[in-house]
């Protein structure tokens, strides 16, 4: 039973990634109206008669989202009944399904009634929260047999400040990136890192949206770099934190690199989807840090542990 739940949790997490990437694909290919103003049907038909690329992309995203939504519901109920004794399980089970359902409602409303670009930018962020909840549920399921033990991690106040601050700020960066896509401002600035080779400041709205996102992403990289340096200096004995921040730094570096390539390649689709993939993975890692922070020992114990005490062997596994 436990083994089946693990496999199902992993598949559901992967499915959520497909939902995130699929949503980005719909936006980047301009396929949001591939099925017209009809939802959940396509042009009012159960089986569309006039099939084109935009319709296939939009319909595929709807089907994948529906199937994964059912998987999330099953995982929520299954994990609730199996590992409901873990205090965060029930909360995450509710969040994972509710936010995925909310994401679907926003998508449906956008098709039927239309929405502003600023509202549509929330679509990806809401899906990201659902993905993070499913990802953490999966970790809880694997944690039952004590392959790793988040309870043993000890964090001092400065590290907790980094974790809580970075994940909130990362969500803001995600929103600015989604706004770039929905405002179709991905190529508003033909140069990188500045908007133009001849001028430093943007001159119109689309350029401000694009440069605002670049500036926000740059600050995110710097903040994660500082947190990683702090982890390398003070958390060598706690490998979950040590390697976790190194992975986060790699992911945010890949995020910035693919963002630059989006400009240089004139919005290459595969690079643009990789850009969405890396930020999704980064947000998952940061969400895990939040879990560790909420389970961390008291600050005075954490400070002593990071300096003198070796980490329990269960973390090293």
TrEMBL record:
<protein>
    <recommendedName>
        <fullName>Heme A synthase</fullName>
        <ecNumber>1.17.99.9</ecNumber>
    </recommendedName>
</protein>
<feature type="transmembrane region" description="Helical">
    <location>
        <begin position="163"/>
        <end position="180"/>
    </location>
</feature>
<feature type="transmembrane region" description="Helical">
    <location>
        <begin position="270"/>
        <end position="291"/>
    </location>
</feature>
<dbReference type="InterPro" id="IPR003780">
    <property type="entry name" value="COX15/CtaA_fam"/>
</dbReference>
<keyword id="KW-0472">Membrane</keyword>
<feature type="transmembrane region" description="Helical">
    <location>
        <begin position="7"/>
        <end position="26"/>
    </location>
</feature>
<comment type="function">
    <text>Catalyzes the conversion of heme O to heme A by two successive hydroxylations of the methyl group at C8. The first hydroxylation forms heme I, the second hydroxylation results in an unstable dihydroxymethyl group, which spontaneously dehydrates, resulting in the formyl group of heme A.</text>
</comment>
<dbReference type="InterPro" id="IPR050450">
    <property type="entry name" value="COX15/CtaA_HemeA_synthase"/>
</dbReference>
<comment type="similarity">
    <text>Belongs to the COX15/CtaA family. Type 1 subfamily.</text>
</comment>
<keyword id="KW-0408">Iron</keyword>
<feature type="transmembrane region" description="Helical">
    <location>
        <begin position="240"/>
        <end position="264"/>
    </location>
</feature>
<keyword id="KW-0812">Transmembrane</keyword>
<keyword id="KW-0560">Oxidoreductase</keyword>
<dbReference type="InterPro" id="IPR023755">
    <property type="entry name" value="HemeA_Synthase_type1"/>
</dbReference>
<comment type="subunit">
    <text>Interacts with CtaB.</text>
</comment>
<feature type="transmembrane region" description="Helical">
    <location>
        <begin position="59"/>
        <end position="79"/>
    </location>
</feature>
<dbReference type="Pfam" id="PF02628">
    <property type="entry name" value="COX15-CtaA"/>
</dbReference>
<feature type="binding site" description="axial binding residue">
    <location>
        <position position="213"/>
    </location>
    <ligand>
        <name>heme</name>
    </ligand>
</feature>
<dbReference type="GO" id="GO:0005886">
    <property type="term" value="C:plasma membrane"/>
</dbReference>
<keyword id="KW-1003">Cell membrane</keyword>
<dbReference type="GO" id="GO:0120547">
    <property type="term" value="F:heme A synthase activity"/>
</dbReference>
<dbReference type="GO" id="GO:0046872">
    <property type="term" value="F:metal ion binding"/>
</dbReference>
<keyword id="KW-0350">Heme biosynthesis</keyword>
<dbReference type="GO" id="GO:0006784">
    <property type="term" value="P:heme A biosynthetic process"/>
</dbReference>
<keyword id="KW-1133">Transmembrane helix</keyword>
<feature type="transmembrane region" description="Helical">
    <location>
        <begin position="91"/>
        <end position="114"/>
    </location>
</feature>
<keyword id="KW-1015">Disulfide bond</keyword>
<feature type="binding site" description="axial binding residue">
    <location>
        <position position="275"/>
    </location>
    <ligand>
        <name>heme</name>
    </ligand>
</feature>
<keyword id="KW-0479">Metal-binding</keyword>
<comment type="pathway">
    <text>Porphyrin-containing compound metabolism; heme A biosynthesis; heme A from heme O: step 1/1.</text>
</comment>
<feature type="transmembrane region" description="Helical">
    <location>
        <begin position="120"/>
        <end position="142"/>
    </location>
</feature>
<feature type="transmembrane region" description="Helical">
    <location>
        <begin position="215"/>
        <end position="233"/>
    </location>
</feature>
